Each structure stands twice: as C-alpha cells, then as structure tokens.
Amino acid sequence: MDNTLSSLQRQMQQALISPGCDTGKQAESFIRPTSRLSAEACLSIYQRSYCSRLQSCMREQFPALCHALGASVFNDFSMDYLSRHPSTCYTLYELGRLFPDYLKATRPDSNSGQESSEQEYSEQEIWIDFMVQMASFERKMFALFDAPGHEGQRLATNDTDDKHLCLQPAVRLGRYDFPLMDYYLAVRHGASPDLPPMKITHVLLVRKEYRIHILTLTPAHATFLAAVRNGLSVTDALAYTADQLKIPHSGVLQSWHASKGVREVWLSAGLFIDTQQ
Amino acid sequence: MDTLDQSLLSPVPDLGLGLGLRNCHFEHILTHWPEVDWFEAISENFMDSGGRPGYVIRAIAERYPVALHGVSMSIGSTDPLDVDYLRKLKRLADDIGAIWVSDHVCWSGINGVYTHDLLPLPFTEEALNHVISRVRQVQDCLDRPLVLENPSSYVQFTQSTLSEPEFLRQLSDATGCRLLLDVNNVYVTCFNHDLDPIAYLQDFPMDAVVQIHLAGHTHCGTHIIDTHDQPVSDAVWALYRRVWQQTGGISTLLEWDGNIPDFDRCLTEVNKARRYRSGTMEPHIETGSANQQGSGVPTPLDFLIPDIMATMDEE
Ligand SMILES: [Fe+2]
C-alpha cells in the first residue's frame, strides 16, 4: 500500500467529498480504531461534519431560497451542488458563487429537447424559474455585502452638477420575472409567503455606508441606470431613456429634476459619487 | 535551519484575556468599546473585504491588540502553498499591525479543493519534513514567525510514528515557529484517541507556546466533538490551570462559534480564567458524562457568514 502523505490525503479527501465511494470501508487500512469506535466510525465524524457544516453555510447565504424549498430539499441541492463544484477558494464567501448556474444547468426541464409552448409553461417550470432567480438575487446581495464600495470617496449631493455624477461601485441592477424582493422581505419578517405570481420587476441594490438597501425600479429607471452603468453621461442617459421608452424627453427631465424626484431620492440613497474632487 | 531574525523570537507579551472577534458582536464593540484585553480575528473573513468587515477590523485594531487566526492556510497539504493567499494575509497583518498570525497544524484539501475543515496529519517523518519546509516558506513570505495550533482530531493514522507533542516540538525547533496550545483540543483529542491529557501536556513544548485557546465541546459518550458552542467544561478548566502553573502566564483567548451568546456573556466566560488559575474557583470534574446539547457539529462554520438578511435596510 502507498504510505505517502499525498496518498493518505487523496484517500481521506475522497471519503469526504465523494460519499458513497468505498473509501469509508477501507478506513481500517489507514485509521486506527479507538477503544469505543471503529476506524470507519471515526472517519464518518469527518464525513458528517463536511456535509453539515457546508450545508449550514449555504443556508446562511441563501436564506429565502432555503425557506422556499424547505431546509431538507435545500440541503440535498446544496450537497449535489458541492459534489459537482467543491469549494476551490480559501474563503467561504465564494461557496455559493456557482449555485445559481448549477440550478439553471441541472433543471429537470433544461434538456427535454423540445421548446415548450407558452401554454405548456407548467407550474413546475414557473417554480424552477423562481428558484433559479431567487438564487441569483441572493448571491448578488451576498456578494455586494463585502464588495468594494463608495466608502472613501465623496458621495454626490443635491449641489453636485449632473456632469459630475458617477454611479458608485456598490450598485447592482436586476430584472426578475417575480417580485423577489417582496418574498425576501416576507421571509425576513418571519412570514411564510406563497410562491408569488409572475410579475416582471426591476430591483436595485445599493450599499451605502456599509448597509445594503433594496429599491424597486420602474422600467424607465432601470433603462436609465443601465445606460449610465454602460458609460453614458447622465444627460445622455436621460435622452436615451426617453428614446427607448418612447416617452417625451421633457417628462423624463421633469421627473429627474423634480423636488423629491428621482435625482433627489437616488442621491440620498447614495447611488452616485461626485467625480469633482 | 534557515536563519530567522532572532528578534522575532524574543519573548512575547502576555496580552491577557481575549475573545474571538465575531460578526454578531461588531455593533456592540463599536458602540461600547468594552473592556477586553485583546481580540483574535479570523483572517479569511477580512483579507478580501471591500465592505464592513474591513472597516470594522481596522477600527478595532486602533484600540485593541489584534491577532490574526487563519483556517485555510493548509500548511500540511501536499498541494503547493497558495502564494496569493499568503500575500493578502501579509498585507492585512501589516495593515492592522497584527500581534501575530496563526493557523492550524492540519490540511484543508488537495487538488485545489478546500473542504473548509481542519483535517489531521499523520505524525510521520515525511509529514514533519513536509510541514517544516512549508513553514519556512510561509515565514519568509509573511516576514514573521508563524504560530501554529494543535487541532481537535477524530482519527489516528496507523502510520503515525510520533506523538503530537513530539511532532510539534520538532516542528518548532526546526523552524522557530511558535505554538498556540488549544487546551480544549488537547482534551478532545486525548479522549478520542485514548490518551492521557496530563501526559500530553507534560510532553508539550511549552517554551514555544505564545497563546492558549479555550472553548466548549460536546461529549457524545463514545467521542467528544469540538463544537465551540457552549461554556468551557470543568475538565478543560482543570487542564488550563495546570498549563498556567507549568508556564506562568500566556495570552489566553476564548473561542465561541456556535449559539454565540451576547458579548458580555462571552466576556464573563473568559474572565473565569482568572479565578480558575488563582484557585478561587475549583473545577468539578465528572468523567465520561455525555453533554450532548449542542449541534454536535465540529466547530461550526456558519458563524463566518455575515447575516445579510438581518442587516439590510428596507425601502
Ligand atoms: Fe482553537
């Protein structure tokens, strides 16, 4: 038998991340039993611990999705996910990075081979869409918590000229087919919300002074912010939004500049930094 | 042996009684600046922080001594060392003026995988030489001696030829690395491996110890799990007192990672150390009694995950 350190580590890791392989039964070949436990029972302490510790980290990172699925189903998904994508980063913050992609790729209706017509859009498909989108929403929230932000730079105020407004780094936009935010907040308040009916929603996440705020956006807001994020100046993005949504430019300008209007609300939410030092 | 700056090996201070820095206590600390001698922060939670954790640790390090304690260096792995990780760790340690940088004598994974567990090493000559050469690389990279902790263990490898204290003694002699003696881990490992904890402590290279860990565990009857989710057991207090008498004063820190109570409860727990070591409080030891009230999960990890849902603001 290969007695090297690398061979022992290979055997032990295999037993942890690929349960079901027969390394557990070979435990006696490299683990000494104790007066109370067999070699296999000793090894199984590590096997159980690997699963339960990482499952609980996943639950912490996706609390609303976990609520939607129920802890037991969520745990099963987590373990299947981790068996396909074991952690490859020293920080647990990256543990759930690929979870939304995993859910998308493994959805049972993903390779049925035929496009379903709109009428066939079944309840099951809606439910899976909700799961996938909730996972990506929660991942976005989680990553934003510790991402680089505006802190250390000057936030814009009502006195800042439009041409000096720049979207701060800790802003995320999302478009979803469900009112995910309502669901998320209901879970936060300890309620047991049902799967919400489909409704296209635009959501903005912003971190100001280390706290995350969620704002709902109109389609016009979302178009405008996406344009600014893609590099347009505020003035150009206002014109672009009017164009895209076929609404009068004057109306867009008015809702932007009005007292308690979009500009004022977003400045106080900390969306923009002042580029003029 | 590689030449390590001898000034780095000078006697280290007794920092007093400290607490592991936990997310759920941030607000309390920043508001009340409680009287605690020092903190120990989990390195990986702060190394990449662009958000609040990075701000918090800097604010705390301005007022308290802070040591960095890692869980992912994987010093015993047969994978190459993660140089990017070490660079970030050094930058953080320099930034906050860390008192020292510690991790565990263990491995976390191979082939690029992190199991996020502190997996035990076989105590063989091969493993010892492997870890010696890696500790030297890490110390060169961090430009300071590394401090390494004895982990809790649930398996003993058939191929081990050295005891854990002997392994650690040779490691520290060869590299100049310092040791973090986790007294709870000694108790847990010794029970699980049918060893005598007092003999273990007699063999332990106390000269190299710069820090002690205290924590709670869960006794499952046939084995003990290092759960860090309850008060320190009397048996562990008794060992702590013995270590104290053996060494005469070492920085001591309480780890509480599951079912974490409020800050003051943690502080009260670590402050018991003063009374146990002076003899004004006596441990009452009942041997072999199961106390399975906690999760039964070895050192939970979820305390490392910030609770976004609880801390966000609504529209
Ligand atoms: Fe410890």
List its salient traits.
heterodimer; A: 277 residues; mainly alpha; Outer Surface Protein A, domain 3; 3-stranded antiparallel sheet; two-stranded antiparallel sheet; 11 helices; 6 strands; 10% strand; B: 315 residues; alpha/beta; TIM Barrel; 10 helices; globular; disordered N terminus; binds fe (ii) ion
For the CA atoms, what is the radius of gyration of chain B? 19 Å
Number of DSSP strand runs of chain B = 11
In round numbers, the mean pLDDT of chain B is 91
Q: Distance N terminus to C terminus of chain B? A: 61 Å
Give the helices and strands of chain A as they follow along the chain: HEHHHHHEEHEEHHHHE
The tally of structural domains of chain A comes to 2
How do the strands line up in the largest sheet of chain A?
3-4-5
CATH class of chain B: Alpha Beta
Low-confidence stretches of chain B: 1-9
Fold blueprint:
The complex is a heterodimer of chains A (277) and B (315).
Chain A: H1 5-17, E1 31-32, H2 39-61, H3 63-69, H4 71-84, H5 99-105, H6 123-145, E2 165-167, E3 171-176, H7 180-188, E4 201-208, E5 211-217, H8 219-229, H9 234-245, H10 249-257, H11 262-269, E6 272-274
Antiparallel strand pairs in A: 2-6, 3-4, 4-5
Helix pairs in contact in A: 1-2, 2-4, 3-4, 3-6, 5-6, 8-9, 9-10
Chain B: E1 17-20, H1 26-32, E2 38-42, H2 52-63, E3 66-69, H3 83-96, E4 101-104, H4 125-142, E5 146-149, E6 156-157, H5 164-175, E7 178-182, H6 183-192, H7 197-203, E8 209-215, E9 218-219, E10 224-225, H8 234-247, E11 251-255, H9 263-278, H10 308-311
Bound molecules: fe (ii) ion (FE2).
